């Protein structure tokens, strides 16, 4: 069968939060492409963020009709993935519009700028090896982990399965396995949908990669006050199911058994790097890039969570998993590509790490680095009517990171300035007493 040839100057590969870019001259070495479809490119192949930020930046930089194609294994246009664990699951909401609004905007870009959007046109990942996907309990041989209604949340198809299960098991019991981003946000969403929710995680407190014990004290107490049960220090080791194969119980390592109708697992994901194994340099679990997201192979760019890039603020190579970095790294890479073509230059990527979350009536933001000594300030009582508290991280006499719950837009901007400026601190106790006033002075 003759290959169907298509010609593009740029191709955006994938519909995830971020992926990898490769020039046309290197396509031949990648076996995961469909054997009956040839993609001939004249210059570069850029992997995207799901929101279409790479495509949008190409349009902003100037693009001729027919120069750009977007290829994704998902059968839908790229969309705002963070909405999947928030508005998409809320009862009686316009959730589908929330998750797909950016897809609609991208379709408008396609028509205006001549983009070619090809969902599921070619398998970009080696699916037999199951790369570039959420970590599943079946990966570890957990007994009963293949039962029905043991669910994950990585893409729109996963979210649709979860919505269907919530409708089928209305007002039932749900067990959330994991105490990180997904665990906290999904616990809130399930509780809002009137489920009896239990969270299970092995760590001594929730989200230990970012939260200190003082920060976690508030959220665990707040969730408990909302009726969510929390089981810490143990893991799921097996599941029971009924005659139809539907999960009925979660077996914990400490011997407890939790009855349930739905299990949602949020224990992380793996970045897509196996596709390019041995072809570009790797470091710290990602594809090593420069400050413009170009890899060790000229013309090959990696963005988002697959990229290990020079974090200028801390003078070190780092890989960052967050949608904010995915968006900004995509834009940086496209600007660098277009600048190189015109013989110009762009500034090096100077990223300030940023994380945020919203659940129930609380919302927090974090900027910088959570290393050194933490200095908790404010009111972190879970029973407070209007809680507002935060934490500074102090290393080598400087504030390097700031967390704030319940901040206004101006206050959140202030803590971002602190994390960027890294002001000196001589009296930690005075810093604790000043709290947000310290940030306001920077």
UniProtKB/TrEMBL annotation:
Catalysed reaction equations from the record: 2 monodehydro-L-ascorbate radical + NADH + H(+) = 2 L-ascorbate + NAD(+)
UniProt keyword list: FAD, Flavoprotein, NAD, NADP, Oxidoreductase, Redox-active center
Pfam families noted in UniProt: MDHAR3-like_C, Pyr_redox_2
Superkingdom of source: Eukaryota
FAD/NAD(P)-binding domain segment(s): 52-330
Domain named Monodehydroascorbate reductase 3-like C-terminal: residues: 352-439
Entry's Gene Ontology cellular component terms: cytoplasm
GO molecular function, one term: monodehydroascorbate reductase (NADH) activity
Keyword NADP: yes
EC number: 1.6.5.4
Gene3D superfamilies: 3.30.390.30, FAD/NAD(P)-binding domain
Cofactor(s) essential for the protein: FAD
Annotated family: Belongs to the FAD-dependent oxidoreductase family.
PANTHER family in the record: APOPTOSIS-INDUCING FACTOR 1 (PTHR43557), MONODEHYDROASCORBATE REDUCTASE 4, CYTOSOLIC (PTHR43557:SF17)
Protein name: monodehydroascorbate reductase (NADH)
Gene source species: Digitaria exilis
Phylogenetic placement of the source organism: Eukaryota, Viridiplantae, Streptophyta, Embryophyta, Tracheophyta
């Amino acid at each position: 069968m003759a290959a169907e040839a298509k010609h593009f100057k740029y191709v955006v590969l994938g519909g995830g939060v971020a992926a990898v870019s490769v020039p046309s001259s290197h396509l031949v070495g990648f076996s995961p492409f469909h054997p009956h479809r040839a993609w001939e490119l004249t210059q570069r192949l850029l992997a995207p963020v799901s929101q279409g930020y790479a495509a949008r930046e190409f349009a902003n930089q100037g693009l001729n009709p027919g120069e750009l194609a977007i290829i994704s294994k998902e059968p839908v246009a790229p969309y705002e993935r963070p909405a999947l664990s928030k508005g998409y699951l809320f009862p009686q909401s316009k959730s589908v519009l929330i998750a797909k609004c950016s897809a609609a905007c991208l379709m408008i870009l396609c028509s205006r700028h001549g983009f070619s959007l090809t969902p599921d046109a070619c398998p970009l990942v080696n699916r037999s090896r199951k790369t570039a996907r959420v970590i599943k309990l079946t990966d570890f041989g957990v007994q009963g982990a293949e039962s029905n209604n043991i669910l994950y949340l990585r893409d729109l198809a996963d979210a649709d399965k979860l919505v269907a299960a919530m409708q089928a098991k209305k007002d039932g019991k749900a067990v959330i396995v994991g105490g990180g981003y997904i665990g906290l946000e999904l616990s809130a969403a399930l509780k809002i949908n009137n489920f009896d929710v239990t969270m299970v995680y092995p760590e001594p407190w929730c989200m230990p990669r970012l939260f200190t014990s003082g920060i976690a004290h508030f959220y665990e107490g707040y969730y408990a006050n909302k009726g969510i049960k929390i089981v810490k220090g143990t893991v799921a080791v097996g599941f029971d199911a009924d005659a139809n194969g539907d999960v009925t119980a979660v077996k914990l390592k400490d011997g407890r058994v939790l009855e349930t109708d739905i299990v949602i697992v949020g224990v992380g994901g793996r970045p897509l790097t196996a596709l390019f194994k041995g072809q570009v340099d790797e470091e710290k679990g990602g594809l090593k890039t420069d400050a413009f997201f170009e890899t060790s192979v000229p013309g090959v760019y990696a963005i988002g969570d697959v990229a290990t890039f020079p974090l200028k603020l801390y003078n070190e190579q780092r890989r960052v998993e967050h949608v904010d970095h995915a968006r900004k790294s995509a834009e940086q890479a496209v600007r660098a590509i277009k600048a190189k073509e015109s013989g110009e230059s762009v500034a090096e990527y100077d990223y300030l790490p940023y994380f945020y979350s919203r659940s129930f009536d609380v919302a927090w933001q974090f900027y910088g680095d959570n290393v050194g000594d933490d200095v908790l300030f404010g009111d972190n009582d879970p029973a407070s009517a209007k809680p507002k508290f935060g934490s500074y991280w102090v290393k080598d006499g400087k504030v390097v990171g700031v967390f704030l719950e319940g901040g206004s837009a101006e206050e959140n901007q202030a803590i971002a300035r602190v994390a960027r400026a890294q002001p000196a601190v001589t009296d930690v106790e005075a810093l604790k007493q000043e709290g947000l006033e310290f940030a306001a002075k920077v």
